[in-house]
Amino acid sequence: MDSPTCGQNLVSVIIPTHGARNAERLAHMAKQIAPATEVIIVYASLCSQPADIGCVAEAKVVAAGKHATASECHAIGAQHATGNVLLFLPEEGIFPPASLRKYIAPLQRDYDLVLSAGGRMLTKGRLSTVRCACALLNDLLGQKQLGSASLETAPFSLTRTALEAIGPHKLQVPATALVSAVQKGLAITTVAPVSRERKSSAANQGVAKAKSLVLQEHAKAIQLLLQDQNVRGALPDGERHRILVQVPGLLHLRSVFYQQSREKEGDGWGAKRKERSKRARKRVQSRQKRSH
């Protein structure tokens, strides 16, 4: 039976993949990240686990649906993880193991979630709609310092406590999971993304998520966020009192901004306009009398 200390130091590395040919290489890389490492490989192209890939470098092998996305594979892998720290890697590329340890270090300094820092909004002169959606969500969450960082982009890591607070199943929709993490008060930070040593084969691109689906998920997350807070997403509304717009008998435009009572202006602006018109007519009548 494992000791409590061993369980606390165990790092679960979750890797989604589409092709069995890369499993051995990915598992070998993950084993070098920490002294005590649990490697979980989630195959996104299998409905069941074939016998020939049942053991890959002492890694746990989990089968996912044929059309499972990387996020869905991350959620499945999280449900099988037993470590106190979970590190999620992308399906493509081989990373230097030493560079991946910077995703673990902040978790030992009272952080709950570590994301890869987002890149520029403009890439080769073209606007990245996905990064803009991520940045907008972070801004509405009051986490503008995160930029365009997102749970959509691996690598990222979190603690066992954070996983239980968010819910493993929510990781399949990263935007919603991030909303939950902020609402739970988790401490979030970012680190500079690591560069890949090499890319894997094109067959491993099957778990990539379509851009349209990413944008749809962020729109849904923003909608849920606004519903949970208010129509302005908890942003300040100045001195406006919008509730007065629905109150009959008040001059809405002025009242919404200044909430001035009818008593202060007598009968309101209408009375003032009538009074000004009355004085103007008197002046005209006076001039006409003098001219005669």
Automatic annotation (TrEMBL):
Record field: compositional bias (Basic and acidic residues): 261-272
Chain intervals with Basic residues compositional bias: 273-292
Superkingdom, taxonomy of origin: Bacteria
Ranges for region Disordered: 261-292
Protein name: Glycosyltransferase
Organism name: Brevibacillus gelatini
